[in-house]
Amino acid sequence: MRAFFAVDLPDDLAEPLADAQAAFEGADGLRFVDPDRAHVTLKFLGEIGEADADDRSAEDEEAPPLDDVIAAGERAVADAGVGPFECAIEGFGVFPSLDYVSVVWAGVGAGSAALTALHESLEAETTAIGVDPEEHAFTPHVTLARMNDARGKELVREVVRERDPEIGRFEADAVRLVKSTLTSDGPVYDTVASFEL
C-alpha cells in the first residue's frame, strides 16, 4: 500500500485553507487539493507491505512490512522528544521554484522546528528499515494545489510574491500513519496507526 506519516489539520481550518486557495483561482492549469484532507506530510514512504512480516506475500517481499513501519513510527515519535505544540499555517510558496511551478503550498511558521524534528526522526527510523531516503530538504507545508501545465504560472508567481496570509493556528498532538488510495476523485486517506505526542 502507498503510505505516509503526517500531522493532520483540524476541520475548522478547511474554510481558511479554501479562502487561501481562492487567491489562485484565476490560474489556469492548477488542480486544487481538497482542504478537508489537509495535512503536513512528515515522511512519504511510497509502497509498504499491506501485512505484517509473518503474513507477507511474494510481491510484498521488497517493501518494508507493516509492523516494521508501525514500530519505526513509534520509535521515531518517542525519540524526537516532541510534545503537543502549536502550528501556524501562513504564507505561500511553491516547489521546486518560481521558474518551474509544480506544487503550490501554504507554509508553517510557529511549529516548524517541532515538525522538522519529527521528520528527521522518522527519516532515520524508516530508512533503517529500507524506505528510500528523501531526495530534497524538508520544508513543512500544506499542499494547496498542483500545477498540471504552465498557463497560470504568472498569476501564481504574482500571488506568492505579493501575499503573505495568516491562514490559521492549531495544536498538533499526534502523528498518523496514513494509507493513500488514488482514485479518479482524488486520494482517499485512511489511518493505519496513530502516535500521540
Which properties best describe this structure?
197 residues, Cyclic Phosphodiesterase, Chain: A, five-stranded antiparallel β-sheet, four-stranded antiparallel β-sheet, globular
Q: Gap between N and C termini, in Å?
A: 25 Å
Molecular shape: globular
Which CATH C-level class is it? Alpha Beta
Largest sheet, order of strands side by side?
A: 2-6-5-4-7
Approximately how much beta-strand content do the residues carry? Answer: 35-45%
Structural class from helices and strands? alpha+beta
Architecture, according to CATH?
Alpha-Beta Complex
Q: CATH homologous superfamily?
A: Cyclic phosphodiesterase
How does the major sheet shape up?
Answer: 5 strands, antiparallel
User: What is the gyration radius calculated from CA atoms?
Assistant: 17 Å
Segments where pLDDT lies below 50 for 5+ residues? none
What's the domain count?
1
- Number of E strands: 9
Count helical runs.
4
What are the secondary-structure elements, in order, as H or E? EHEEHEEHEHEEE
CATH topology: Cyclic Phosphodiesterase, Chain: A
Mean pLDDT: 92
Instruction: Give the proportion of residues in helices.
Output: 25-40%
Provide structural commentary:
- There is one protein chain.
- The chain has one domain (2-196): Cyclic phosphodiesterase (Cyclic Phosphodiesterase, Chain: A, Alpha-Beta Complex).
- Helices cover 25% and strands 36% of the residues.
- It has helices spanning 14-22, 66-80, 112-127, 153-162, and strands spanning 2-8, 30-32, 39-47, 85-96, 101-108, 141-147, 166-172, 174-181, 188-196.
- The chain has a 5-stranded antiparallel β-sheet. It has a 4-stranded antiparallel β-sheet with strand order 3-1-8-9.
- A hairpin with a 4-residue loop joins strand 4 (85-96) and strand 5.
- Helix 2 packs across helix 3.
- It is globular, with a radius of gyration of 17 Å.
